[in-house]
Amino acid sequence: MPDTAAPLYREFRTQDEIDRQYNPSLAVADPGAELRHYQEASRLARERLPCALRLPYGPTRAETLDVFPAEQPGAPVFVFFHGGYWRALDAADFSGVAVGPRARGITTVVVNYALCPRVGIDEITRQARAAVAWVARNIGAHGGDAARLAVGGHSAGGHLAAMSLLTPWERDYGLGDDPFRAALLFSGLYELEPLRWSYLQPAIQLDEGIVRRNSPVRLVRPCATRAWIGWGALESAEFARQSTAFHAAWTGAGNAGELAPVADANHFSVIHGLEDPDSPVCGWLAQALGA
After folding, report:
1. I need a labelling partner for 175 at 20 to 30 A (CA). Which of 27, 235, 254, 267 fits?
2. In the beta sheet, which residues pair with residue 228?
3. Which residues pair with 186 in a beta bridge?
4. Going along 82-225, which residue ranges are E strands?
5. Parallel, antiparallel, or unpaired: how do β-strands 107-111 and 64-68 relate?
6. For the chain, how far is it from start to end, CA to CA, in angstroms?
7. Which CATH number fits domain 15-289: 3.40.50.1820, 3.40.50.300, 3.30.360.10, 1.20.120.350?
8. pLDDT at 291
9. Model's pTM, two decimal places?
10. How many CB atoms lie within 10 A of CB 263?
11. Which of 60, 55, 112, 58 is nearest to 81 (CA)?
12. Angle at 220 between CA 218 and CA 223, to 5 degrees
């Protein structure tokens, strides 16, 4: 173990200090209630909205996605990656994020992926990119317009959405290098280094190479995509810093980005706006996609 007299990361000298910043369950009264909200909203979405579930986008059983098509064909498309610190939860827990976009004329795709420790973050990032490539090539069969594509995600999913923005799409997939018109990043993890010293390390098994390859704040490039970068105003100082640091790097590269703390929201409720077509975030997404 490192010398606890020296900081593990920034000013943090102990795992407990880092965990208090990066364990969002510590900051809410009932974490189980937060998960139940997701699950109930998702159950209702699947009951009430047309959907095509568990479509395979890759060779492994975990590589599936759920499509919630808009009412009109030729609709813009929003690809969403769920959170859970790369080691928990499932696309089925996040069907509710399709409700608001669909009411604004947007098709939503909710991506599932394999979890740590069965696979590592390098592989999860590869799966996220493979899901986007599948959508770009196949969403027309489900009423979507791949020329009007947005990507988004929450927490670990925000990380995966950011890594999707930074993919060399032309080199690796034969797609245009900037396939997205917009990105919605909720409470993302853009610098993975502090998580090496957290309660998450036994599951996610970070090392220097993984951190270097998968920390979006270190990888920002010029990009034509307009990004909304938000977090809950009730979240820890480190979640706020992660978002502000990524925004600074993003705009510093000449990219268009909006920094948007969400009032009265914690780490879990920050995405509730996707369940409401009249929310500011759904309005932003619709405007960015021309919906």
Report:
1. 254
2. 184, 258
3. 154, 230
4. 107-111, 144-154, 182-186
5. antiparallel
6. 52
7. 3.40.50.1820
8. 84
9. 0.97
10. 9
11. 112
12. 175
CB 132 within 8 A of CB 164: yes
Q: Which of 237, 76, 235, 91 is nearest to 143 (CA)?
A: 76
Tokens of 49: 């909205």
- One-letter amino acid at 127 equals Q
CA-closest candidate to residue 16, choices 188, 193, 197, 190: 197
- DSSP calls for 125-167: HHHHHHHHHHHHHHGGGGTEEEEEEEEEEETHHHHHHHHHHTS
pLDDT band with cut points at 50, 70 and 90 for residue 132: very high
Contact status, residue 40 vs residue 94, Cβ threshold 8 Å: no
Question: Pairing state of beta strands 182-186 and 144-154?
Answer: parallel
Q: What are phi and psi of 160, to 5 degrees?
A: -65, -35
What's the mean per-residue pLDDT of the chain? 97
pLDDT (0 to 100) of residue 226: 98
* Residues 6 or more apart in contact with residue 5 via CB below 8 angstroms: 13
Token pair for 50:
């047309």
**Rounded Cα–Cα distance for residues 230 and 263 (Å):** 10
